[in-house]
Amino acid sequence: MNRLSKEKSPYLLLHASNPVDWYPWGDEAFSKAREEKKPIFLSIGYSSCHWCHVMKRESFEDEETAEILNKNFIPIKLDREERPDIDEIYMKAVISISGQGGWPLSIFLTPTLQPFFGGTYYPPEDRYGIPSFKTILAKMIELWKTQRDEIEVSAKRISSILTEEVRAVKGKLTTFPLDAAYATLTSQFDTVNGGFSGAPKFPTTSLLFFLLRYYSRTKKTRALDMVTKTLTKMARGGLNDQLAGGFHRYSVDQHWQVPHFEKMLYDNALLPLVYLEAWQATKNSFFTDVAKQTLDWTLSEMRNKKGGFYSAQDAESDGKEGTYYVWTKDEVVQILDQRNAEIFSKHYGVSEEGNFEKNNNILHITNEPQKIASEMGTSEDDVKQALKQAKKTMLKHRDSRTKPATDDKVLTSWNGLMISALAKAYQVLEDERYLRAAERSANFILNNLLNGEELFRRWRDGEAAVDGLLEDYAFMVMGLIDLYESNFDVSRLEAALKLNGVMIDRFLDKDGGGFYSTKQGKTDLIARVKDAHNGATLSGNGVASLNLAKISEFTSDDKMRSLSKKTVLAFWDGLELNPERYAQMLCALDFLTGQPKEIVLAGKSDEFNDILREIRQTLIPNKVVAFSPDEQDTLTKIMPMLEDKSPLNNKPTVYVCQNHICKRPVNDVEPLKKLLA
Questions:
Q1: How far apart are CA 402 and CA 524, in angstroms?
Q2: Whole-angstrom Cα distance, residue 627 to residue 642?
Q3: 67, 199, 358, 459: which could join 254 in a potential S-S bond, CB 3.0 to 4.6 Å?
Q4: pTM of structure
């Protein structure tokens, strides 16, 4: 066993028995590299990464390859989910070197941690014009021996690119980036399959969030159509686990048909949020059905006993990708009776030839129950009942297979996203299960990963570790605000305000605007990065900016709004040139340039059911909602917006304000609808 055996990360522990003499990222490895004047080989991946597992089997378990690494390099293995800040830096370096990135990330560093060469997956033998890993190692050894001075000059040049800073521009916010992003996305939209690219195809939830806000602002139905088309195609395709629910990470084809089979917590938090907002805009129950199925899978499969949510599930089981999820036609016929097998196959596109490797089928919806009923001369209800029973039987059979491994570490940031998703699900669906789950997750994070003001990033096996990053603070603040708007427990808002204050203190670039990914004082990074680009999750700067704008509405603190604006202005050059690359920042810009509604409920909480239902089931992206109890002296210090807002005529009363100017308060749903319109 190598040094990784002492780590907590499931990804690192997978490599603990490799013959490679791995070091974890840290001073021991850095000192060794400096003392022995050896280059560092840094391998970055994560536990549910299929090609990470492939390279592990082909190269890192190979004795000959391990001997080369151990003799000539200081090998370091890093879990990108624990340290996305390090991954972000070296991913940018690899993209600048090779033109593309991905995982596993394979990068060569000087002893001072500066990158000089890198790529992604390397095969064990030369193939298809791709050099083998051994070929790459031999070339790096030769260059280090014969051209070290040139390597160090090159490494400094690459590092200088990484340290380029963005700074806030002077001027006012305009809506130009919103319109420009909409125009670009309209031109990029796949009108057949939904989404905004060819293969591979990712969910790109931040773009969908932006388009829903643009629709709410402009009432341009094209924006809404792009969202609903994409969500429908994703949900009907192989990207969505048709039996149990839960979305895979991305599709390798343009039709959402063949997924890369790992399931990530962040996708299964963000996608339900988008589906719920799509329902608010359309009232099409298809979207709430998908949101519920996704969240219910997450609650069932991805939660520990204390309420924290796990990170991911693998793409493979028994060493093969996707085998847990796919079916041959023969299997379906053997498991189900003849009639149910026919209905199941018609609905999910199961055929003899299959749509995946070795005549296997990835389930996807090809025929609606109504059409099947017509073809088979039966009723639609009969077909639906048959499908319900068939799914139950097939799922039971699937559960007997070897399940993909679950990465059971709990990440603060991704739990923050899940808290938001569950809180919003409770608001829209009125299902208490989701509120209880959001509460338990929030309690788990605040009780286990918060030490005074210090928020940690990762919990596993009883240990909280790794300094919290910008996204950990920002996503938790987002989750806690949404949780407050769900149960009006002011302690949740107070916790959000406290974490927001710590985030400002430790991550804000006071001169240039915006927030760094890492807090002050980190010594194991060659660069301190500020970034707001779209990613697999949401942009930390985008979420932080939107949080600040909302907190300004709750607290009447103009400093928070000013910080929010300065954060957007820090990325203004990018927002003007390529606004679609900054989708979450566009959501913050939409809030800041719109007229967000401040909604206050005054009265007894149990009297607001109909009124709350109207507020929560209407698409109003730019709003804050607060509750004013009878005794509000303490609360008005936290939320001055509550002052002088009390029930009228002893009835539950709603105050709707904009720009700190309030409309006439109302007691009933019908006049409220006009105020919300």
A1: 40
A2: 8
A3: 199
A4: 0.95
